[in-house]
Amino acid sequence: MARLVAWLALLSCLVLGAVGPAQAHKASDSYLVLDVAGHDVRGQWDIALRDIDVALSLDQDGDGRITWGELRAHHAALARWALGRLALDRGGRCDLGVTEQLFDEHTDGGYAVLRLAGHCPGARAALALDYRLLFEIDALHRGLLRLTLDGASHTAVLSPERPAQRFEPGEPSQLATFAQYLVEGVWHIWIGFDHILFLLSLLLPAVLVRDGGRWRGVAGFRPALREVLAVVTAFTVAHSITLSLAALQLVALPSRLVESAIAGSVVLAAANNLWPVVAHRRWVVAFAFGLVHGFGFASVLADLGLPASALLLSLLGFNLGVETGQLAIVAAFLPLAYRLRNTGLYRRGVFVGGSLLTLALAAVWLAERALNLKLLSG
Questions:
Q1: 219 plus 109 within the same structural domain
Q2: Co-location of 10 and 33 in the same domain
Q3: Structural domain of residue 169, as residue ranges?
Q4: pLDDT at 183
Q5: Which residue, 24, 105, 193, 356, is most buried by CB atoms nearer than 10 A?
Q6: Helix 311-340 vs helix 221-247: angle between axes, to the nearest 10 degrees?
Q7: Quick one: 198 exposed, middle or buried, by C-beta within 10 A (0-12, 13-18, 19+)?
Q8: In terms of domains, do 14 and 33 share one?
Q9: Contact 90/121 with Cβ under 8 angstroms?
Q10: pLDDT band, very low/low/confident/very high, at 340 (cuts 50, 70, 90)
Q11: Could you tell me which of 199, 253, 259 has the C-alpha nearest to residue 22?
Q12: Is residue 275 part of a domain?
């Protein structure tokens, strides 16, 4: 019974991505840009139409598309809904209104653009911000804030755990900036289902060895650990290279191409478990596809925004956060996999069954991203 419980725990780790959204790499975000100078507030708030539709049912004809006419018909309701979930306080509650509503296309679809303007009672006090958009519907939602407060730049990620934040006048401390990006790096790898499934697909054979056309368990823990360290290190080095190049705007690739290639890497990694082409030196595969995954991480970092005053420190914090999240996944996976390596449950249920499930799910992601289709809900 204990072995069965352990197997089920390991399999649940593997299929974590199966319950995620079809657009596995792109979580629900809104983009809030505010410029607060003295009493005056100006800003822009980009909110995904798919998120607004969940709350306000924009798609009136049910055809799966949201037109400008459908969005315009909900302008007043949208303004009330959004402003009811955002509050600013500077020496007292700030009056905030929507002056204009527009439409824009982001890499992950259409967004409503709300132009904001307002007035705060205080001109030199700290700014308190309370953000509650979509948290009651989607616990994974994040508000990505870029704030200019009396000329000083601040960035923040607003979450159900930290919906209310306070910003003091003047430049933020570099230590606080580093810590913020570290946490976001950890969070991103944990919700990056495609990254997790790629990594797990490469790690599943780490406790096995190919012998006479069949898989059997490794003789000891040390060879399995060496294999895991080689794969994780290669993946880390590779995505760190391209993450840095892209975040510093030295290299840029189209988002659709990157996301399609990431899904393709998961397909190939899972297929290689079932029909081995690369049975050894899987670290080479991890490095090659890790270069692609780095561009995916960079797109998230671009959404968060790198503060000019702490550019390299923020980049380092985010990267270390990603690595910390990866190590947590490996620490949960490896002991269970090693313990079960010689059982049919692992070789057939987790290794073969998990690889088949991963292959099928990643193939759907690939079709959606490459062909701009919507095959799964989410």
A1: no
A2: no
A3: 29-173
A4: 86
A5: 24
A6: 160
A7: buried
A8: no
A9: yes
A10: very high
A11: 259
A12: yes
Q: Which residue has the tokens 């890497």?
A: 265
* Residue position matching structure tokens 């292959």: 359
Q: What is the pLDDT of residue 369?
A: 86
Task: Please enumerate in sequence order all residues whose Cβ is within 8 A of that of 59, keeping only pairs 6 or more positions apart, or say none.
Answer: 53, 65, 66, 70
Kindly give the interhelix angle for 354-371 and 255-274, rounded to the nearest 10 degrees: 160
Task: Establish if 202 belongs to a structural domain.
Answer: yes
Same domain, 81 and 41: yes
Count up the domains in the chain and report the number.
2
Alpha helix ranges (H) inside the chain? 2-14, 49-56, 68-72, 75-83, 174-191, 193-203, 221-247, 255-274, 282-304, 311-340, 344, 354-371
Q: Is 43 exposed, middle or buried (0-12, 13-18, 19+ CB in 10 A)?
A: buried
For the chain, give the mean pLDDT: 86
Packing angle, helices 193-203 and 354-371, rounded to 10: 140
Question: Tokens at residue 232, please?
Answer: 């994780």
Within this chain, do residues 57 and 142 fall inside the same structural domain, yes or no? yes
- What amino acid occupies position 2? A
- Please tell me whether residues 65 and 162 are part of one structural domain: yes
Residue 157's nearest CA partner among 297, 264, 272, 304 is: 304
Q: Are residues 120 and 196 in the same domain?
A: no
Cβ burial of 76 (10 Å; 0-12, 13-18, 19+) is exposed
Where among 173, 200, 225 does a domain terminate?
A: 173
Kindly state whether residue 180 falls inside one of the protein's structural domains: no
Count of positions (residues) in the chain = 378
Number of H helices, E strands in the chain: 12, 11
pLDDT digits (tens, 9 = 90+) for 144-168: 898 999 988 888 889 999 999 999 9
In a domain, 221, yes or no: yes
Neighbours of 373 (CB within 10 A): 11
Residues 160, 210 within the same domain:
no
DSSP state of 93: B
